[in-house]
Amino acid sequence: MSETENLDQVRQRMEQLTDELEKHNKAYYVDNNPTISDELYDSMFQELSRLEAQYPQFKSLFSPTQRVGAAVQSELSKVRHAVPMLSIYTETDYTAEGAYNFEARMRRELELPEDVSIEYDTELKFDGLAINLRYEDGILVQAATRGDGYTGEDVTANVKTIRTIPLRAEGLPKVFEVRGEVIMHKAVFERLNEEQKALGLKLFANPRNAAAGSLRQLDPALTAKRSLNFYAYGFGEVSEMPVSSQSELLVYLKGKGFPVAPEHGLAHNPEELQAFHSRVAEIRQDLPFDIDGVVYKVNSFDRQKQLGFVSREPRWACAHKYPPEEVQTQVLDITVQVGRTGKLTPVARLKPVFVGGVTVSNVSLNNEEFLEKLGVKIGDTVVVHRAGDVIPEVVRVIPELRPADAKDFVMPEICPVCGSHAYKEEGEKDRHCSGGPFCKAQRVQAILHFVSRTAMGIGGIGEKLAEQLIHADLVKTVADIYKLKKENLLGLERMGEKSAENLLASIEASKHTTLERFIYALGVPEVGEATARTLASHFGALKKIEEASLEQLMEVEDIGPAVAECILHFFAEPVNLEVIGALIEDGVTWEENQGTKDEDLPFKGMTFVLTGSLPTLSRDKASDLIRKFGGKVSGSVSKKTAYVLAGEAAGSKLAKAQELGINIISEEDLFKLINQGDNTDV
Ligand code: IVH
């Protein structure tokens, strides 16, 4: 074999390896559908690296070996963008107004007759950093950050390490610049910060900062380790445009191997724009990356040209934001709250911030373990998170912003309310006040729990009044609530004749209750509404629960040894039995039965959803009734819903039920269903 022939073979082999490896790379990282084993990939990769070292003249511009990082650079050089990278008009009205404002502006600018609609492309607004990828003859030749919009930084070597960015794309026009967002997935971010912490390195405040820091590295090998991602949504300089609208562009880019987030669509009026905004708001938490809004773009490129630009923004696009889910604020103080069961909870008093749609000023710090993990001091700047309906939480401290006079916080070893010893048992996370009913904080909380809507449902007793009742010695145990007289109440602050009468009426009305509500109201540790309900339906009578052994308690569905132990303890305590006795003596009643096996109940295994207001039953009463007959009550309609119980002014749940073909019933139908099952009186 001649030497040229031999070299030809080497070159061919290198080309083949390059092609194969990139194909598998896309299958693995972009399509999430690996086609070969990691071992085979590695061995091909090593063979290619070896050949490239030996025959550098054949190394391809799009060799996958670049993805592990090239030589360290001394600086990132400047790049002038062929087409400026503009900013976007941002609509900060979080409500539907945002969508209407945009549509109104577009209609005005385009001067369209009323019966002509405008088509919009709707996309996610990624919270990362914009980047320009320049392809010449289908090969990635340069990647640059946005910078000031006109000049950015050359991050080509770093970008080549992002596995989802094609190093080559077949069939692209001669010059084609793809624009999109470099982001860090939330899971990658969490992992990175854990590693940084373990190594004593600085933490990143959020995924966007981490992505920016990782992309603007001088050492591409470092970028490679950070597992960045990319989503395409636009273009820069293009020698010849193959499509004529934004939605076609996204399809085209995807076809060429660029990652395009699947959450995009079309809209033709402000209602549809807003529907996209709302739909994305619901899935926002579940997306693997952060977004801070959605983007609306006039779809047709011709119309985009017609609309043109104002200063540095195109007129044809608009970002419609969401309230931030993560914000920074300062910890003004850390105080300790004492709960109903004596549990001490440290609470961060924050400089109020707007996050996830609400203003937050107090956030629980859970317990000592959490405090320690967080490493928070009074005066620190922290990141507060609240997504959807979840409870706000402090996720991390930003150590760079710690003031010199930041103060340490230690959990007290005495109860801040009653001064009793606050103990923490081996292996327990929580510290408890040992004061029991002597601790006023515990008594206040016990009252608030007892009167709460889903317990005895006594309206009109809030924290302030509960404190007064305790301080005035009018209420020592919850049973004393039923002994209150008008003349006692009138002596209290801000208690007039009328409110005293209302309160007494509400107390009187609460006397007739259900067994499950009564058990829940007692405040047995670890017994929430659901457990109270199963206890009530399993045993049927209070006496049987009081007398149940550990074994008998553990026979109940969903009750484990720890909960059984709590129940046993509670009913072994003479004080608790005295309170129960007093409550019954005061006239608290409920109906007892034999304790039904759940299977006998007519609604066993069925889920109900309530919407609108019913003619006679309150929502709580209707829920009680459904549960009494073995059913479950849920807040949202799904395919699994058995019945939607609809009343006056039913809303979106009714529409959803109709869409899914779920049985819709009235209050009257509910009574009929119950009476068909057996002849029990409702
Ligand atoms: S379009 C002017 N689409 O928003 C319109 N931008 O661009 C050209 N951004 O900082 C950009 N998601 O990082 C566009 N789906 C999306 C986007 C998006 C996020 C960011 C981008 C830039 C800013 C303005």
Write down the overall mean pLDDT: 91
Evaluate the radius of gyration. Answer: 33 Å
- Proportion of strand residues: 15-25%
Overall helicity: 25-40%
Distance between the termini: 97 Å
- Total of DSSP H or I helical runs spanning 4+ residues: 24
**Number of distinct beta strands:** 24
Low-confidence stretches: 678-682
Largest sheet: 7 strands, antiparallel
Q: What is the SS-derived class?
A: alpha+beta
User: How is the quaternary structure best described?
Assistant: single chain
- Shape by Cα distribution: elongated
What small-molecule ligands were found?
2-(butylsulfanyl)adenosine
Helices, strands, pairings?
Blueprint: H1 3-29, H2 38-54, E1 78-80, E2 90-91, H3 97-110, E3 120-126, E4 129-136, E5 139-145, E6 151-153, H4 156-159, E7 175-183, H5 186-198, H6 207-215, H7 220-225, E8 229-238, H8 246-255, E9 265-267, H9 270-283, E10 291-298, H10 301-307, E11 309-310, E12 313-314, E13 317-321, E14 326-338, E15 343-355, E16 358-364, H11 368-374, E17 381-385, E18 393-397, E19 422-423, E20 431-433, H12 440-451, H13 463-471, H14 486-490, H15 497-509, H16 515-522, H17 529-539, H18 542-547, H19 550-554, H20 561-572, H21 574-585, E21 607-611, H22 619-628, E22 632-634, E23 643-646, H23 652-660, E24 663-665, H24 667-677
Parallel strand pairs: 2-13, 21-22, 21-23, 23-24
Antiparallel strand pairs: 1-6, 3-9, 3-10, 4-5, 4-7, 7-8, 10-13, 11-12, 14-15, 14-17, 15-16, 15-20, 17-18, 19-20
Helix pairs in contact: 1-2, 3-9, 12-13, 16-17
The chain binds 2-(butylsulfanyl)adenosine.
2-(butylsulfanyl)adenosine is lined by residues 86-88, 123-126, 130, 181, 233-234, 295, 314, 317.
